[in-house]
Amino acid sequence: MTNFNSRSKIVSVGTIIVIGSALLTSACSNSGNSSDVNSFGANSPQSGLPKSETKENLELLEQTKALLDAGKPEQATKVIEKMLVNDPNSANAHHCLGYIYHLADKQDKAIAEYTRAIEIKPQEADSWHARGESYMSKKLFEQAAMDYSKALMISPAYHTWYRRSCAYIEQGFYEKAIADAKQSIALNPKYAPPYLIKVSAERKLGLNSEAEADLLAAKSLNITNGYELGLRSEFLWEDGDPEGAAKDYTAIIDSQPKNSGWFYSRARCYLALEKVKEARADFDLANKYEPNNDWYSDWIETVDDLEYDLSHRVRTPAQQWALACSAQLFAANGHGLHSLSGRALTEANKLSKKQSLTRSWGITSRADLLNQLKNLNNGGGHDGLWQSYLRIKRGEIRPEQAAAVARDLLRGHFKERMAVIDEYGGVFGDRGLCAWDLCRYINLVRWGYLIGFVSEKEAYSLMMPVAIKIQKKYSSWEQMNEEYLIGRRFWSYKEWKDDIARTNRITKLLLTQKTSPWVTLPWKTKLDN
What we know:
529 residues, single chain, mainly alpha
């Protein structure tokens, strides 16, 4: 099992759908059938055209819809300009123009146009809803919720209940998010997105059995439109279910067979499932439909690295077990879990890791590496700092008496780290931060082998005693991982917080994916032979 991390140049397709799901007014909507998805990317019930529109403008409006259907916003804008010449107070024209600005991520201009449409026709729910979408794109969730509330007062549509639940969950109003999601489901029980919002909110509230029931309900829905499939597939991916996500991406690809983004998204699922052949085929298809992009060569290198990793598995269960102690960080970096190096021994990979070790660890030589390993193994890593904090908590020393802690006071880290001590200091006992330091020790050994600072034989002679120490201190992969991640929080609260979603996904994959060493190797695997 390997993790697929989005390159900085790739935007998640599912994220695009969530951010760009503005609903058009009745002027820009297609069929009123709630199970259909219009070409503008959202479900939009028909609500009828205002009688004030002239016959000419109604004809121009149909042209606008056709051009937007065809993905030609520039031509659509020109038609809208004709509508505004005919009637500067055309609410439909202002709304459609707002939608085009929304698609172009010019949210301030979109909001201005939606506002003008609302001023002209304040009882048009779709304009309130659409302005809420632009506020959501700007992360102005309170304003978005207010606009959705206005829309709901006019027309309590299931999609608006759902979107207000999204705004509430972003603000941490989990009970309100659940209540709105229930309203959406009551109006349209076959609409998947509100089930997913409920799952997220219920998990935040610790309602795990309810969340599991809602997730099962969402997965059991027979979805056919791209908007819902996109949301569900992205949710399943982030939830650590690449197999379920891949099925949904396949359904989308069946209807949009030339969209490169969906192939990239499905390929990452295949990488996580260690299906090299399928991943390579999807990347090739993505490149076919969007050639000459900057992503393709990077992804093919990732596939090559995974292929190397799978074909160079370490020989014994004991060696596999030792490598598995570094699985969390190797997976986070998109590297393999089965070979000593985790990636191909290419000059590019060696150079990249040398630069990383210099930047993050100050390691530029074999001697530096061995000194750092000795330091981590003898309590000189973050466990030493942890012990200083424990002594402060017990009143044995003052913060300013410990040099490292004094530095934390100056840098503003003291309160964050003391909060971790308050929560876990009494729980960890003499283990301290061993999981954090010793798992990183395994990481460093593997990286040292990759760049040629240690031989294969030496790598295992360094790793195995530490692996035995880890096995004796913890009772399961789950416990080791949990305390490793708490160590990461102690190391950097910001890094830990920013990576919570990714870390949760990787943890679930490691604990459930059938190819994961945490699944295939019992914790009590014999190591001393």
